[in-house]
Amino acid sequence: MVGFLSWWDGVELWLSGLGFVVQTAVVMPVVLLLAYGLAWGLDAALGEGIKVRERLRHGRDGEVR
To answer: Is residue 19 part of a domain?
Structure first.
């Protein structure tokens, strides 16, 4: 853990030394990839939750409960 935190401090210092435009160009692809991954995961989880709810709601015989 100490090694990771030391590496992160180095990255943070390097990034803070860059100009604003360069910081934006470096950070935005990372943030966009993380946001896309989070949205994809939440969409998949919500889709599965809706499928489970529909199965529970309609039951095995297809009647709405």
So the answer is: yes
Q: What is the pLDDT of residues 53-65, one digit of tens each?
A: 998 888 766 666 5
What's the burial of 29, exposed, middle or buried (CB within 10 Å: 0-12/13-18/19+)? Answer: exposed
**Structural domain includes residue 38:** yes
56: its two tokens: 């529970």
Considering the domain boundaries, does residue 12 fall inside one? Answer: yes
Strand positions, DSSP E, the chain: none
To the question of pTM greater than 0.85 for the whole model, the response is: no
Its sign, for the CA torsion 57, 59, 63, 65, is: negative
Distance CA(25)–CA(20), nearest Å, equals 9
- Asked if residue 65 is part of any domain, the answer here is no
